[in-house]
Amino acid sequence: MPAYQPEKLCPDCGSVLPRSAFYKKGKSKKDGKSYLTTRCKKCHKEWRKTENREYERKAIRRWRASNRERWNAYMRQWRKVHPGSDDYRKETYRQFNSRKGRGRIPREVWEQTLKAFDYSCAYCGTTDAPLCVDHFIPQSRDGDSSIANLVPACKSCNSTKNNRLPEDFLSLDDYSRVVKVLQTLMA
Ligand SMILES: [Zn+2]
Ligand SMILES: [Zn+2]
Description:
This protein has about 190 residues and is α+β, with helices and mostly antiparallel strands. Helices cover about 50% and strands about 15% of the residues.
């Protein structure tokens, strides 16, 4: 039994802190004593965030595995209510992953772009088609592959736009709408 220590080391931030800087855990079922958390309050919160995410993911996977039938029924229902969207999303990611021109665009950036544009074509707004990566300012016109220059576009808009500059392709309203979304991504 270690001697009572007024201070305790937090292994995450490496500081020696008073016991009040640690959370008290509920009384242990084994010996009825209450213990402090391993990490200080600040580090504990951070740790819970990442730990919980992992824990929840695992719990969801477990639930799905043991409720296969209910999950499948749920997905069937979901597809009925959202016709096409699941397939289009799959196709969108398949295209993205197989695209030669993906270059250095990381998946997280593409996710963020899709989310910002509500999984719809930045130009015509369709959600009923697979979306591909479009460079707002074409690469042939020195547009880069940063998040500020990427938009999701359906095949048809993508090929109509071709290597034109956005201002030569879009109405002023559409142009400023897209720019506004891109600005939120840069912030
Ligand atoms: Zn700490
Ligand atoms: Zn479109």
